[in-house]
Amino acid sequence: MNEQLRRLFPVTDEYAYLNHAAVSAPPTPVTDAVLSQISDVQKHGVSNYKKWIATKDRACADFPDKTGEAYDPAVVLDLDYTVLMPR
Fold first, then answer.
1. What angle do CA 87, 41, 55 make, to 5 degrees?
2. Domain count for the chain
């Protein structure tokens, strides 16, 4: 894990971080996006839906190494989970 990517995971300051695909420590941009949305819902209900989508897209855009030789295409930056849900 390069240092730019490692800095996004504060858990690595204290521990060796091994994501085992179950419960894992989120990176800082994800935590920031979730806290922003929860605060907005608390204050404004659903009136700022478009802002929530922009916040989600920002976290994906801020992810380092999403292009070039260091990019791992197995990393999912934006998954529309609704297509996986049974109807």
1. 80
2. 1
Confirm whether pTM is higher than 0.85. no
Domain assignment present for 58: yes
CA dist 9 and 16 (Å) reads 11
3-state secondary structure string across 23-34: CCCCCHHHHHHH
Residue 53 in any domain: the answer is: yes
Domain hosting residue 54, numbered range: 26-84
In this predicted model, what pLDDT tens digit does every residue of 17-47 receive, in sequence order? 776 667 788 889 888 878 888 898 999 999 9
**Which ranges in 14-61 belong to alpha helices (H)?**
28-44, 49-61
